[in-house]
Design a protein that fits this description.
Structural class of chain A: mainly alpha
Radius of gyration of chain A: 23 Å
Number of strands of chain B: 8
Distance between the termini of chain A: 29 Å
Number of helices of chain A: 22
Structural class of chain B: alpha/beta
Largest sheet of chain A: none
CATH superfamily of the largest domain in chain B: P-loop containing nucleotide triphosphate hydrolases
Organism (chain A): Paracoccus maritimus
Oligomer: heterodimer
Keywords (chain A): Cell membrane, Membrane, Transmembrane, Transmembrane helix, Transport
Protein name (chain A): ABC transporter permease
Largest sheet of chain B: 6 strands, mixed
Subcellular location (chain A): Cell membrane
Radius of gyration of chain B: 18 Å
Number of domains of chain A: 2
CATH class of the largest domain in chain B: Alpha Beta
Helix content of chain B: 25-40%
CATH topology of the largest domain in chain B: Rossmann fold
Shape of chain A: globular
Membrane topology (chain A): Multi-pass membrane protein
Number of strands of chain A: 0
């Protein structure tokens, strides 16, 4: 027991030490003139939302929902079709490749082929989600009660076995997971607006650029309500209705047509490394080492800086926030307030938070670190808080800070470390993405390469990003296994339904 | 039917039952008796496997029912004959059972007294009702032998007697584990008593009562 405890503290100490080493290298300058004035204007806008631009807002909200519903439905269907075959290596590796590329990166690449239109938006959500759905649904199917299927004996054909004795048993959890994915889809769909699709992100960006903080506040308010109430407006019975509405809405979107043969050109020309394209295979090494020196390594360094600092910030926030929603610690009113704060921070995608902070603090690593730390800290804090509220306490247990320090922190410390490790990989992936906003992480170099139409470089950076996240995922899984918390996610999901799968 | 020949049964290194040999004649109704943990379920599982290996059609009522809680009682019953049909037929049945299939399943549900509950999801039924659905599924399946592990443990005594009669009429041969000795005596043509990992008694139901009760003594 004792050895395990030491290693938990050891892991925490290790991460703190790495963060301390990162600190001198991090660019935390405030570039904005007067961040507090900007923050004040923004806060005033949020407190007095202006719903005047109702037509634009309505269209952006409707399109956000439409992209999310269509993308999640397509991804979910593809994932469901792949889930029973997930044990085959071809399927598994396809899925890993699909989900190792972030929605925004998918969108940036797809734009080169399908243009700034409906196909790009729907596919950017559907492709990575198909990979995630396939993995999770196959896990859900594996965990379902095997006994009815055993009863059927060996002579029943596989399709009947699946439809009669496997799918119905897994259905409740699948529906729950799909709803959680729709929440994620709404976030993805809104964020896709920042790179030009006609969703909430686009509208928010244009309101900010025009200084219409009231209208931006209105969009934020609607967005939070939309996500918080997703289980109210999306009912399994209404799926078809929403789907038809989504398709109808998306058919209104007009996009400039792309020339014919773009896909072929993209696959056979654009993404082929330049030396190969020019018939100079010997130049490949020079091309790759130059790319690594000028883009991948600096991008990777910045990505890891941001991620390590954000992880520590997230951990700090979660460490204190874990009891924010426990009435016995903060009182009934305090717990309600805690819930509200955590819900708001969880609802906003990291990307949108980083965008907001960028408006306040100007371009540096600070907005990215703050956004990642707050969002992920709120998620970990929420998950831990739900466990803290469910702890079986002796009748004469203390309350307030004493309870936090003597019961909640020690009892949930293992979970805390495991959850932070779990978010680690996600934080790295996201800090790479935030480069699109202009912070010099991997996404910045990727965006740059795409802007210069050097898609071969973009693909190479994308592959490097995928390899790094996969490596970190493996490392985190090993650390968690050493902590005896390798199965954390499965357990959480079963206990808490969809929300806990937030770890994915 | 020659089923087991000096077989050691159980999981892993320590068998639950040792050296079991079992013949069952067509038309016999065998009841296994013994305290819980005596090895009745282990023996039933081995018997079922042996029957399947001989290519016989077996209808099973497992102790834990193994129903699909999300599907209706009717569809759980219809599951009894999935291996008689192809995937397309079964898919059609899942969406909307054919008239003849539905009528046949309803007849069986009527026998176990569950007609009103036919279209209710099994997860909304009581423990006794679930057990009767599991029995109905086996009745609908039909076959050479019924293998049942405590198939009547959760129904009231009067109903248990009636359902034992239904089983007797529906299957030429039956091998059941029962904990209710009176029910067993009324149903069986042959009793097998298990204790301490061995077959302690095996004979017609006119075995002296105190020998049967010795099975349950510590």
């Amino acid at each position: 027991m004792r050895a395990e405890r030491v290693s938990r503290l050891g892991i925490v100490a290790g991460f703190l030490a790495v963060a301390a080493l990162c600190l001198p290298f991090a660019d935390l300058q405030q570039a904005g003139h007067d961040p507090w004035a900007a923050l004040g204007r923004m806060a005033a806008g949020f407190l007095r939302p202006d719903f005047g631009a109702v037509e634009q807002i309505f269209r952006a909200v409707a399109l956000t929902i439409a992209f999310a519903v269509a993308g999640v439905a397509a991804g979910g269907l593809a994932g469901l079709l792949m889930a029973p075959f997930y044990r085959f290596r071809v399927v598994r590796w396809t899925c890993i490749a699909l989900r190792s590329v972030h929605e925004l990166f998918w969108a940036l690449m797809l734009m080169q082929v399908t243009g700034m239109g409906v196909t790009t938006g729907v596919l950017a959500i559907a492709l990575p989600y198909a990979g995630i759905f396939a993995k999770v649904l196959s896990e859900i199917l594996d965990e379902a009660d095997p006994r009815p299927s055993e009863w059927l004996g060996s002579r029943v054909d596989p399709l009947s076995r699946f439809l009669w004795a496997r799918a119905p048993l897994a259905r409740p959890e699948m529906v729950n997971y799909a709803l959680y994915r729709l929440e994620c889809g709404l976030r993805s769909s809104a964020v896709l607006g920042f790179i030009g699709l006609p969703t909430l992100g686009f509208q928010l960006d244009s309101f900010f650029k025009q200084g219409e903080y009231g209208a931006a506040g209105a969009i934020m308010a609607i967005y939070i309500a939309l996500i918080a109430l997703v289980r109210v407006w999306m009912r399994p019975r209404l799926v078809w209705l929403w789907l038809i509405a989504a398709i109808a809405m998306l058919s209104q979107v007009k996009a400039p047509p792309m020339g014919s043969g773009v896909l072929w050109r993209f696959l056979t020309h654009d993404i082929v490394p330049a030396p190969l394209r020019q018939g100079d295979p010997a130049g490949l090494w020079a091309w790759l080492s130059e790319l690594t020196r000028d883009a991948i390594l600096p991008g990777l360094f910045a990505t890891m800086l941001v991620a390590q600092l954000a992880l520590v910030l997230a951990g700090l926030i979660a460490f204190f926030a874990q009891s924010l929603i426990v009435p016995r610690v903060t009182g009934r009113a305090g717990a309600m307030l805690g819930h509200l704060v955590l819900v708001i921070l969880r609802s906003f995608p990291e990307y949108m938070l980083a965008y907001l902070f960028l408006q306040v603090f100007g371009p540096s690593m600070l907005p990215a670190i703050l956004a990642l730390g707050l969002h992920n800290g709120a998620i970990i804090g929420h998950l831990l808080g739900r466990q803290a509220a469910g702890l079986a306490l002796r009748p004469d247990a203390p309350s307030g800070l004493t309870l936090w320090g003597w019961e909640i922190v020690p009892r949930l410390f293992g979970q805390f470390v495991a959850l932070c490790l779990y978010r680690w990989e996600i934080i790295i992936r996201e800090s790479a993405i935030l480069g699109i906003l202009g912070i010099a992480t991997l996404g910045f170099y990727l965006d740059d390469a795409i802007a210069e139409l050097r898609l071969d470089r973009a693909v190479a950076i994308l592959v490097a990003t995928g390899l790094v996240t996969a490596g970190i995922d493996m490392l985190s899984r090993k650390l968690r296994a050493r902590l005896g918390a390798g199965h954390l996610r499965t357990r959480l999901r079963r206990r808490e339904g969809g929300t806990a799968a937030a770890a994915i | 039917m020659h089923l087991l020949d000096a077989a050691d049964l159980g999981y892993g290194a320590a068998p639950v039952l040792r050296g079991v040999t079992l013949h069952v004649a067509v038309g016999e109704r065998v009841v296994l008796l013994g305290r819980s943990g005596a090895g009745k379920s282990t023996l039933l599982a081995a018997v079922r496997q042996a029957l399947l290996d001989q290519g016989r059609r077996v209808a099973l009522v497992p102790q834990d029912h193994a129903l699909v809680p999300q599907l209706s009682a009717l569809r759980n019953v219809l599951m009894g004959r999935l291996d008689d049909h192809g995937a397309v037929y079964n898919l059609a049945t899942l969406i909307r059972p054919r008239r003849a299939d539905r009528d046949a399943a309803m007849t069986v549900l009527d026998q176990v007294g569950l007609c009103p509950e036919a279209d209710r999801a099994v997860e909304t039924l009581s423990g006794g009702q679930k057990q009767r659905v599991a029995l109905a599924r086996a009745l609908y399946r039909g076959g050479d032998v019924l293998v049942g592990d405590e198939p009547l443990s959760a129904v009231d005594p009067a109903q248990a007697d009636r359902l034992a009669g239904v089983i007797r009429d529906a299957f030429p041969t039956a091998i059941l584990a029962l904990h209710d000795v009176d029910l067993a005596l009324g149903f069986a043509t042959r009793l097998i008593g298990l204790k301490h990992g061995q077959v302690l008694l095996d004979g017609a139901p006119d075995i002296p009562r105190d020998l049967i009760e010795a099975l349950y003594a510590r």
